[in-house]
Design goal:
It contains 1 helix and 11 strands. By secondary structure, it is mainly β. Strands 2, 4, 5, 6, 9, 10 and 11 form a 7-stranded mixed beta sheet that branches. Strands 1-3-8-7 form a 4-stranded antiparallel beta sheet, with no helix packed on it. β4 and β5 form a beta hairpin. The longest helix is centred in the middle third of the chain and has 4 residues. The protein is globular. The relative contact order is 0.32.
Length: about 120
């Protein structure tokens, strides 16, 4: 059964860093695009970043502002989101998702597999 599991969340102070990991199983990881999304309390889920099956990357610059880096390690079936210079507004549940379609992008509809999420809390 295909499954995604996120890890690496936690509580940090403003300016701190976290590295999130997304481990996939049950499908050929090298063939999927991987996206990271987040949802803050009381807000809609929003796109953060994507890495395509060909290692192309894209970011929601309104969110990332040069602070996050997405990467993948196919031999470990794992994608990462390195988050630096964290701000209070980065607080939320972070989800990874995979999609097998032709295009990689920001729309949640491009992804058909989602993890349960990992909590990130940034305090002042």
């Amino acid at each position: 059964q295909a499954q995604l599991v996120e890890s690496g969340g936690g509580s940090v102070q403003v300016g701190g860093s976290l590295r999130l990991a997304c481990v996939a199983s049950g499908r050929a990881f090298s063939r999927v695009h991987v996206g990271w999304f987040r949802q803050a309390p009381g807000k809609e889920r929003e796109y953060v970043a994507v890495i395509s099956r060909n290692n192309g990357t894209a970011y929601n610059n309104n969110v990332v502002k040069g602070r996050f880096t997405i990467s993948r390690e196919n031999t470990r079936n794992t994608a990462y989101l390195q988050m630096d210079s964290l701000e209070v507004d980065d607080t939320g549940v972070y989800f990874c998702a995979t999609g097998q379609g032709a295009a990689a992008g920001a729309a949640p509809q491009l992804y058909d597999q989602w993890g349960p999420g990992t909590q990130v809390t940034v305090s002042a």
